[in-house]
Design goal:
This protein has one domain (8-62). Helix content is 74%, strand content 0%. The chain has helices spanning 3-29, 36-64. The longest helix has 29 residues, at 36-64. The protein is elongated. It starts with a helix and ends in a 12-residue tail after the last helix.
Amino acid sequence: MEPRLGRIVLLVFAAITAFAGVVGLLLMFFPEPRQNTDYLVVGTLATFASLLAIFVLVVAGVLRSSDGLFFRRKNG
């Protein structure tokens, strides 16, 4: 598997796991009967958690890579 494909799979898996985990956790804490706004809040927070997971993994990958953010030009 190429390194880029592995990173993409990791990003997708992390986003799905974060989303599902936050949804499950928040639905346990919201009391029954739930209203439409409860589901709106749960979905919003789960989306935020999945986007945060993607952001953290991308930033960590950029900082860890040897290239960094700036590329040197080849002289010649």
